[in-house]
User: What shape does this take?
Amino acid sequence: MTKPNLAFLLQHPAHFLALGFGSGLAPKAPGTFGSIAAWPFYLLLMMFLSPLQILVLSLPLFLLGVYVCGKAGKALGVVDHGAIVWDEIVACVLLFSVIPQTLASQLAGLLLFRFFDILKPWPIRWFDRHLKSGFGVMWDDIVAAIMAWVVFLIGHMVFVRQFTV
Assistant: This one.
C-alpha cells in the first residue's frame, strides 16, 4: 500500500482530483475535509451555473469520479483509501444543488451527509462492502447524499415551514 503524500497528489491529475485537491491528505478525518472542500467548489460552480445545471453536472462529475477514484485506488493499493475524497465532494455538490441556497441549509446538508457517510446505515454499508471499484467508491456516497436529502426535506417541512406559515 502506498501512503498518499504531496508527491502522489501531484503525480497525476486523477490523483489530484481523487484526493480532493489535497483535502484528502488531512491526517485525521479526510472524508470530513473532503466534504468541507465541496463547499467552496460548489460556490465556484455557482458563479457560472444554476443549481439545476450543477445537478445535471453531477452526473459527469460522478462518471469522472468512477475513473479517478479507481485509478487512485489502484495506485494506492486500496480501492477505497481514506485519502480518496472525490466521492464526498461530488455527493456534497449534488446535495447542495437540491437544497435551499442558504448558508444554514448547506451547513445542515453537510452535517447530515457526514452523519450518513460515517455511520453507513443500510443500504450504504451494503454498497460499501460489496461494490469494490471506482463505481462503488462513488455510489455509496451518492446514496448517503440521497438519504441526507430525504432527512433534510423532512426536517425542513417539519421545522422550517411549520414556523414560517
